[in-house]
Specification:
Rossmann fold, homodimer, alpha/beta, 8 helices, 7-stranded parallel β-sheet
Chain lengths: 215, 215
């Protein structure tokens, strides 16, 4: 019975995700689901990305957190519109929460919608939101064993961003191990090394982002 | 119906957790549940703690991960016994998984059982395992906003370890913000700043640990 209920929850979620996708497509908005552990730098990346992605790309953000509106306050400085979704004890965003977020936005004014998921390497991977692409972040402060330990998340990635690369000289981090583990799970996603602090890798990330807009 | 099922799952878990606790008490084993985001340094902390805690404190570890036995292999170097529990897609350890882990251990040989939970700041907070104390780690690489963003986890902590403190000079991290946020949620748990790399704070953590053994 428990398993049956879980299946029903996921099916209901997928149906709402499809409806979200149709709304986004109708308004010609690219939706990007960002997933990672807490503190990998999702919000900081968006603070740097949104002003840099181009004047013709008006961006909004849906941001999921258990509590607080801190991220939305930060992103409100750079985005056209920002909606904070508090999940309470929920460990991921659901398609229904995103649908409510879409209701609060004027989609016709937007080119890109970033969906910053709850900081978590497990639950968000199970819930489609209606996004077009999935971006997975891994901070080098988290250790080089995380791709193998959280395969479900990395399997789904359309791009993997290895963040806080400016800490490379201080932290022991085996880049080859991450590349090897990723190549076994996912041959599709490029791995981009990036630092929101120094700007390293930002060009490659922005190029990747612009390519998604033209697909 | 969904909520009903979730309540039943939690009740069933609590019953098994109570049974685990009785088994641990009967064998006079202190059980410690370590919870944090991925990459906060739980495994490294245990690698340093177990050899240092004292000859009369024989330690075992139950370690939860979605996949891989990497942590168990590391901890097998220092612990009397190590059991890896792979949760598949599960975002936390359950009391039933811990009960199976206890079956694989000779509890009468042990003084301390460390339970290294799945790297996750949300789900583990909802599941009692039968432990005596809860240790919550926060790496300063994760950012100073995490106590406010994940209050359920920090409310339950018996001690909070602020890890990777050796990175303080490089990373911007507002220690006062963490102290203030924690003091609003939890007046019981001491906050110990620690570095498994340099050894800073290890004495205070080991003292805290030994106090738990004598309670």
């Amino acid at each position: 019975m428990k398993i049956q209920v879980v299946e029903n929850v996921l099916k209901a979620n997928d149906a709402i995700a499809s409806a979200n996708r149709q709304r986004l497509d109708a308004a010609n908005v690219l939706a990007i689901n960002l997933m990672s552990a807490p503190g990998s730098g999702k919000t900081t990346l968006l603070e740097k990305t949104i002003p840099a992605v181009g004047n013709d790309s008006r961006c909004a953000v849906l941001v999921g957190d258990l509590q607080t509106t801190r991220d939305a306050e930060r992103l409100g400085q750079v985005a056209v519109d920002t909606v904070q979704i508090n999940t309470g004890t929920g460990c991921h965003l659901s398609a229904a929460q995103v649908a409510e977020g879409l209701n609060a936005l004027d989609l016709n004014r937007l080119a890109i919608l970033f969906i910053e998921n709850v900081g978590n390497m497990v639950c968000p991977a199970a819930f489609e939101l209606g996004e077009h692409v999935k971006v997975v972040l891994l901070s080098i402060a988290e250790g080089d064993d995380k791709v193998a330990k959280y395969p479900t998340l990395f399997q789904q990635a359309d791009v993997v961003l290895l963040t806080k690369i400016d800490l490379s000289e201080i932290l022991e981090f085996n880049h080859d191990r991450v590349r090897d583990d990723l190549s076994r799970l996912n041959t599709r996603a490029p791995l981009i090394e990036i630092s929101s602090k120094t700007g390293q890798g930002m060009d490659r990330w922005l190029d990747w982002l612009r390519e998604q807009q033209h697909q």
